[in-house]
UniProtKB/TrEMBL annotation:
<feature type="binding site">
    <location>
        <position position="313"/>
    </location>
    <ligand>
        <name>homogentisate</name>
    </ligand>
</feature>
<dbReference type="GO" id="GO:0006570">
    <property type="term" value="P:tyrosine metabolic process"/>
</dbReference>
<keyword id="KW-0223">Dioxygenase</keyword>
<dbReference type="InterPro" id="IPR011051">
    <property type="entry name" value="RmlC_Cupin_sf"/>
</dbReference>
<dbReference type="InterPro" id="IPR046451">
    <property type="entry name" value="HgmA_C"/>
</dbReference>
<feature type="binding site">
    <location>
        <position position="335"/>
    </location>
    <ligand>
        <name>Fe cation</name>
    </ligand>
</feature>
<keyword id="KW-0560">Oxidoreductase</keyword>
<feature type="binding site">
    <location>
        <position position="335"/>
    </location>
    <ligand>
        <name>homogentisate</name>
    </ligand>
</feature>
<feature type="active site" description="Proton acceptor">
    <location>
        <position position="260"/>
    </location>
</feature>
<feature type="domain" description="Homogentisate 1,2-dioxygenase N-terminal">
    <location>
        <begin position="23"/>
        <end position="248"/>
    </location>
</feature>
<dbReference type="GO" id="GO:0006559">
    <property type="term" value="P:L-phenylalanine catabolic process"/>
</dbReference>
<dbReference type="GO" id="GO:0046872">
    <property type="term" value="F:metal ion binding"/>
</dbReference>
<protein>
    <submittedName>
        <fullName>Homogentisate 1,2-dioxygenase</fullName>
    </submittedName>
</protein>
<dbReference type="InterPro" id="IPR014710">
    <property type="entry name" value="RmlC-like_jellyroll"/>
</dbReference>
<feature type="binding site">
    <location>
        <position position="297"/>
    </location>
    <ligand>
        <name>Fe cation</name>
    </ligand>
</feature>
<dbReference type="Pfam" id="PF04209">
    <property type="entry name" value="HgmA_C"/>
</dbReference>
<dbReference type="InterPro" id="IPR046452">
    <property type="entry name" value="HgmA_N"/>
</dbReference>
Length: 389
């Protein structure tokens, strides 16, 4: 995270005695990245965060096998056809992934159990509904269009208010704002399309009583369920630069050129081996002879995973793409507007249309994406041939 926060009660100095009202010591926990060499926060627990009373291996109930994208082909997946039998953690339906990132879709109206991802950060995009994110750091109320970024190792759970649909990005490392948006000291620069004021983080402690509390833990070795002697949500205060936060896609400020700008202007976050981009309503390109629609392009180093979250996709008319669709355009394939889309948009501009209404989340990976069982179960097999119609 780019800036420091204090929530609740903390002592004036780090690593000094901090006593409870009954005279006992609060238990200090350092949550830190990259072996004490990067961002961190100090959390102060009422009980020992190390006290577990049971551990058991967990066998996943949902298949997570990935298959190579062979024969190489552009793909269209209809997440609208997917239904989940679990919560927003155990009900994740794997769409695609590689050694750097896993992309899943989940739909649920039930609270999740407590969960800790110890493999990497997570970024959860809320497509529909509202949900309460509870963690040892506190609470974030999230709704449609919110990205919720969760640091590695954060114990948390999701409590939906009715049915919620989310896209889940599970990284093999840390998810951060792009370096080019930040000063050398971590402040958002003036040219950045969002800033610190747009980020929402827990504002007060969230203390829950409980004993023998199970927590599902994901590691590189698989899933384990640890049972803690006391509830992990017992933090009376914390401070630092590492914490979960939410950012709403509607607060992204699109960067516009006279002619069509490439996807890096939409970049929102970066992770190891991938980037996350936000496509938001924006003014159309305004050069008098502009072609205000993406040109055919071949990003030779990336696979492009696009989740269509809302709005109207004029460049994709005739392809079958709709709200809730996912397109996957792999390296090795040139893609672009559907036939007739360029002429249609130029005509629309001539009639006075000046803005786009599309809303989408794109994940570009720098290693090929393999296909998950959920994607294969909802694939549109005719999509690859729509440019030849």
């Amino acid at each position: 995270m780019p800036y420091y926060r204090v929530v609740g009660e903390v002592p004036r100095k780090r690593h000094v005695q901090f006593r409870r009202p009954d005279g006992g010591l609060y238990a200090e926990e350092l949550m830190g990245e990259e072996g004490f060499s990067s961002d961190s926060s100090l959390l102060y627990h009422r009980h020992l965060p190390t006290a577990i009373v049971k551990a058991e291996a967990v066998t996943p109930t949902v298949g997570a096998r990935l298959e190579a994208n062979l024969p190489l082909s552009p793909r269209h997946f209809r997440t609208q056809e997917l239904s989940s039998a679990g919560d927003l953690v155990t009900g994740r339906m794997l769409l695609a992934g590689n050694g750097d990132v896993r992309l899943s879709y989940a739909v649920s109206d039930r609270p999740s159990e407590l969960y800790r991802d110890s493999m990497g950060d997570e970024c959860v995009y809320v497509q529909r509904g509202t949900v309460r994110f509870e963690s040892a750091y506190g609470v974030i109320e999230a709704g449609e269009g919110d990205y919720v970024v969760i640091p590695t190792g954060t114990i948390h759970r999701w409590v939906p208010d009715g049915q919620v649909s989310v896209l889940v990005i599970e990284a093999g490392g840390h998810i951060r704002p792009p370096k080019r948006y930040l000063s050398q000291h971590g402040q958002f620069l003036e040219h950045a399309p969002y800033c610190e004021r747009d980020l929402r983080a827990p504002a007060e402690p969230f203390v829950v009583e409980g004993e023998e509390v199970p927590v599902l833990v994901r590691t590189r070795g698989g899933l384990t369920r640890l049972v803690y002697r006391n509830h992990p949500f017992d933090v009376v205060g914390w401070d630092g630069c590492l914490y979960p936060f939410a950012f709403n896609i509607n607060d992204f400020e699109p960067i516009v050129k006279k002619t069509h700008a490439p996807p890096p202007v939409h970049q929102t976050f970066e992770g190891p081996g991938f980037v996350v981009c936000s496509f938001c309503p924006r003014p159309l390109d305004y050069h008098p002879e502009a072609v205000p629609i993406p040109y055919n392009h071949h990003n030779v180093d990336s696979d492009e995973f696009m989740f269509y979250a809302g709005g109207d996709y004029s460049a994709r008319k005739g392809s079958g793409i709709d709200v809730g669709s996912v397109s996957l355009h792999p390296a090795g394939f040139t893609h672009g507007p559907q036939p007739g889309a360029v002429e249609a948009v130029i005509e629309a501009v001539g009639r006075g249309v000046t803005t786009t209404s599309e809303m989408a989340v794109m994940v570009d990976t720098f290693r090929p994406l393999d296909l998950g069982p959920a994607a294969l179960s909802c694939e549109d097999p005719a999509y690859a041939w729509t440019w030849a119609r």
